[in-house]
Design goal:
- The chain is α+β, with helices and mostly antiparallel strands and about 180 residues long.
- The protein has 2 domains: about 1-70, Winged helix-like DNA-binding domain superfamily/Winged helix DNA-binding domain (Arc Repressor Mutant, subunit A, Orthogonal Bundle); about 85-175, Beta Polymerase, domain 2 (2-Layer Sandwich), CATH 3.30.460.10.
- The protein has 8 helices and 7 strands.
- A 4-stranded mixed β-sheet has the order 6-5-4-7.
- The protein is elongated, with a radius of gyration of 17 Å.
- The chain starts with a helix and ends with a strand.
Length: about 180
């Protein structure tokens, strides 16, 4: 769907890389390796995004580090479009909100870094989660979004030590009892 609107594959990869997880950052040579594309094509798109104010940059040593400008008026819209594109909105709607005692949901793995992946690594924090029901929902949603979903259930106590192992984890949902 999004490929029809954004025909430049480098541009689409950069959007996913920086706007799926706004805390994600990278530099030109790293993106070259990650995307397996020429630095020139990547540089052109990075410059366009930076000129538009969608990306911000800073120098660290001799590297220019790029990151999404979360203060840009379009940031939230782009982020939400990309969540829909990779199917995370459906994961949240169909899985997390219907399980009952889920307190938080995190994405880890490639998607947490903003790398498009056919595998969604999901960590659910909560208690008394019905594993059989969860597995049925995961199977349905995986078929719907055409991606594999790997899910890990953690207690509130286990969350802190797990998150130390995955500092890039992207919090996608939290229970709000207000």
């Amino acid at each position: 769907m999004l490929e029809a609107l954004i025909t430049n594959k480098t541009r689409l990869r950069l959007l996913l890389r920086f706007f799926l997880n706004g805390d994600s950052s990278s530099y030109l040579r790293n993106l070259e390796t990650e995307f397996d594309e020429s630095t020139n094509a990547i540089r052109i798109e990075l410059n366009r995004f930076e000129e538009a104010g969608l990306l911000k940059s800073c120098m660290k040593g001799n590297r220019k580090i790029f990151q999404a400008n979360q203060g840009h008026p379009l940031y939230n819209d782009l982020h939400n479009i990309l969540l829909k594109y990779v199917g995370l909105d459906q994961v949240i709607d169909k899985i997390v909100q219907r399980l009952g005692n889920v307190k938080k949901a995190y994405i880890t793995g490639d998607l947490a870094f903003g790398k498009d992946s056919k595998i969604i690594d999901l960590a659910l924090i909560g208690v008394d989660i019905n594993q059989n029901y969860l597995n049925k929902l995961i199977t349905k949603v995986a078929k719907l979004i055409n991606r594999k979903i790997r899910c890990l259930i953690l207690s509130n106590f286990e969350e802190q030590s797990y998150m130390k192992q995955y500092p890039e984890a992207l919090l996608i949902w939290t229970f709000n009892d207000n």
